[in-house]
Amino acid sequence: MYPAAFSYHRAESVADAIAILGENPDAKVLAGGHSLIPAMKLRLAAPGMLIDIGRIDELKGVNLTDGVTFGALATYNDMRDADGIAENYPIIDDAVRRIGDPQVRAHGTIGGTLAHSDPAADLTAVMLALGAEVVATGPNGERTISTEELFVDLWTTSLGIDELITSVRVPPLPGNSVMAYEKHSHPASGYAVAGVAVVVSSDGSKVTSARICVTGATSKATHARSAEATLIGQPLTDTTIQAAAQLAPEGLEINGDYYASEAYRAQLIRVLTRKALERALARASGTNA
Amino acid sequence: MADTDTSIAKVHVSMTVNGALRSASVEPRTLLVHFLRDELGLTGTHVGCDTSQCGACVVKVDDVTTKSCTAFAVQLDGSTVQTIEGLASGDAYHPVQEGFWEMHGLQCGYCTPGMIMSSVSLLERNPNPSEEEIRHELEGNFCRCTGYQNIVRAVQYAADKLNSSAAD
Predict the structure, then answer these.
(1) pLDDT of residue B7
(2) Measured between CA atoms, how close is A80 to chain B, in angstroms?
(3) Pick from A199, A213, A192, A225: which is nearest to A283 by CA?
(4) Which residues of chain A make contact with B5, given a CB cutoff of 8 A?
(5) pLDDT in tens, A262-272
(6) ipTM, 2 decimals?
(7) CB A54 within 8 A of CB A31
(8) Chain B residue nearest residue A77, CA to CA
């Protein structure tokens, strides 16, 4: 399959990329290319220009101070291999080891996946659960967008057409925080048929904050608000985990397709919520599941 | 330089492919796999699913296994590429190629070039993979003939051979 014709610009810097983006409203930004190129080959996307940011060094790297900051071009393998990620943010390690396949993980980037807002991406839900924010750079400088505000709908974000995600910041979490990501992968593509990311903080005995975020089953990464609410003020136990899991699909607009019906995906959300909370809890007690 | 069916100029792309500097003028939309097959005549790299899933098109780009259907040649200007044609040393097969031969790691052979390139890369990163690790590392390469059993054996054969020659 051949993409529609486009002109190509290799950006030398963020400023260069933004200037060209502003002059070409039908341009798209090319990072790792592992969402955009498949979409272009299927002619789901036909940008008139690609602005390749792949060689901009200032967009690379992972920095673990005051939380963690990922350059937009950090690949899934970069995230997996960065010192301290698996220890401090095991939910990220869970996700990046199971995205796509080894070739996808070598090239796909965090900035790309968040800007693409694919309904079946993994890191969208993980970053939402971590309370992450992106730094978007445009002609007027930088602004910060929470992941809550970033994901608008299927393949749709609140980024301006002349803005570029330049980094992704995960805030430091309270000391008593546990987390895990569980997914049911499509056997061919590796995309999440459903995935659930959980980050739960407590005061030592009772849950003070619970973020349970769903991907794959909804048009964008979304909070499972009923499940989150039921955990607040409770200890995290088998009983409260079961209750949260049962409530997890409530209030969500769940998609069905030829591969998985709405009812099946709702059940997957229950099962994956339970598994993720159990694994998060096991991590807290040191019995790493 | 305008192409006949578009107004977009071709771009000059150079890469070191299997040790030789190669270049061509191509449309920006030319995928690496088409650059290799159509411009350079290296048809060992196959187009399978064309949706970035099957892995028949896997090559190494700057030592990283890459689905050549999911990169534009122009993005990779200046890169170093290795394809299945660049793996053997003269008449001597690479141990992974030999493993696929000896352990019947192929039937129709369509997936084999990509499967071998991914296997070579996996053994470079992990010289002693478990069966589970082999299967996990090859999850981006689909085979519709073998049921994978003999592919796993081929990789194990190659690992043994590489390790014994490294010990010599």
Answers:
(1) 72
(2) 15
(3) A199
(4) 5
(5) 999 999 999 99
(6) 0.92
(7) yes
(8) B64
